[in-house]
Design goal:
Elements lengths: L24 H24 L10 H30 L6 H17 L7 H25 L7 H20 L6 H33 L8 H20 L2 H20 L10 H24 L5 H27 L9 H18 L1 H4 L4 H28 L9
Helix pairs in contact: 1-2, 1-13, 2-4, 2-6, 2-10, 3-4, 4-5, 5-6, 6-7, 6-10, 7-8, 8-9, 9-10, 10-11, 10-13, 11-13
Organism: Thiohalobacter thiocyanaticus
InterPro entries: NnrS
Pfam family, one: NnrS
């Protein structure tokens, strides 16, 4: 299996040559899709008592850690290694170095289930991934003309700190830092999503619909960062009511922000609509988090609105879009991919709202939501695995 880009069809078979490590999105999106399946299946097994939990983290912290630092971190890596190359014009990792970075990410996922290893070994391997990713991006980011992209390195640094906080508790070196680390990672990912979506979602909308320019406001953009940073700081400090106030303010800001981007015709394009539905989860999830901050509903329901609805929706939608665009294919999602979009959002709905009405069936809602998540990513892997491992359809590098 080649580690570098091969141009055009294979001379022997007439089929596209394999190029799974030609650009960062390829192995990391495939790895993320497979991890989404495996991690959720393991979690459901642990939840029902059919499987023994990994010995390093406790049950809840393992689930939170792996969905954020396993699945989500892989999507972030694939996206940044691809986008930074486009933004800067400087090559990011490919070939053997990219394979090594993927191997480091994968090794951490596996080692959590090796009980004979000391905890500090697991921590070092897992903690090494984000700094390695950041180090690989330093040169292309600094070489680019847009200095605003340098904040990406800062965000990766914050994610590393969040991961360290979770490991400190797992190693017995601190008490109560795992939740702070989880919330810090979640809020940082939300900030990254809102930063990236502010750049690409209006562009996607204008380009695909050939419509008038989306409305943008510097005041709203500034308010986006201030409210999210305020929520992040309050979460880390453990000030739940302050975090709730900032979440409510952020929900209002995001409702105004996305209203300026909505154009007629969005509903006719599932690969664009899925991103706007994910943005609706941003507003809804922040509202729920605000209510949870005042004790009006369980915090874990708001948490899953933001994780399944926002992170799941945006990552699944962006992986589908990026994979098509960067392999020279038509920007049109298949029926099976669209089904995956529907299943994921149904999973978010089932995980958040039925427990409010019928909490006595909580285990049922967790299981059903998890199965819908698995169905969504099974559809993604089935459709996109061949796309991600084969060379571009147009013979271009990448």
């Amino acid at each position: 299996m080649a580690l570098t880009q091969t141009r055009g069809p294979s001379a022997d078979t007439g089929q596209p040559a394999l190029a799974p490590f030609a650009l960062g999105f390829r192995p990391f999106f495939l790895g993320a899709g497979l991890a989404a399946l495996a991690l959720m299946a393991i979690w459901l097994g642990v939840w029902t008592g059919a499987l023994t939990p990994a010995p390093y983290f406790d049950v809840i912290n393992w689930h939170a850690h792996e969905m954020l630092f396993g699945y989500t971190a892989a999507v972030i890596a694939g996206f940044l290694l691809t986008a930074v190359r486009n933004w800067s014009g400087v090559d990011t990792l490919n070939g053997a170095p990219l394979a090594a970075l993927v191997g480091l990410w994968l090794l951490a996922r596996v080692l959590f289930f090796v009980p004979v290893l000391p905890g500090w070994v697991l921590a070092l391997v897992d903690l090494a991934f984000l700094p390695a990713l950041a180090l690989s991006l330093v040169r292309p980011i600094l070489a680019g003309s847009n200095k605003a992209n340098r904040v990406l390195l800062l965000l990766l640094g914050v994610m590393f700190v969040a991961n360290a906080l979770m490991h400190l508790q797992a190693l017995g070196l601190s008490a109560g830092t795992a939740r702070s680390g989880m919330l810090l990672m979640l809020d940082t990912v939300l900030l990254l999503i809102l930063m990236i979506s502010g750049r690409v979602l209006p562009f996607f909308t204008e380009a695909v619909l050939a419509c008038s320019q989306c409305r943008r406001s510097r005041v709203i953009e500034l308010a986006t960062f201030l409210t999210l940073l305020g929520m992040l700081a309050a979460d880390v400090a453990g000030w739940s009511q302050t975090a709730g106030v900032m979440a409510l303010a952020a929900a209002l800001v995001q409702a105004v922000r996305v209203a300026g981007w909505i154009k007629p015709g969005i509903g006719s394009l599932p690969i664009l609509l899925v991103l706007y539905v994910a943005y609706a989860w941003v507003v809804g999830g922040l509202l729920l988090k605000g209510l949870a901050g005042f004790g009006l509903l369980a915090p874990n329901l708001a948490l899953h609105a933001l994780t399944i609805g926002v992170i799941g929706g945006f990552t699944l939608g962006m992986m589908a879009r990026v994979a098509l665009g960067h392999t020279g294919r038509m920007m049109q999602s298949s029926r099976l991919t669209n089904l995956g979009f529907v299943l994921l959002n149904l999973g978010a709905l089932v995980r958040v709202f039925p427990p409010l009405v019928l909490p006595g069936h909580y285990t049922l809602w967790v299981m059903l939501s998890g199965l819908l998540w698995i169905g969504a990513f099974a559809a993604f892997v089935w459709v996109y695995a061949p796309v991600l491992v084969r060379a571009r359809a147009d013979g271009k590098p990448g």
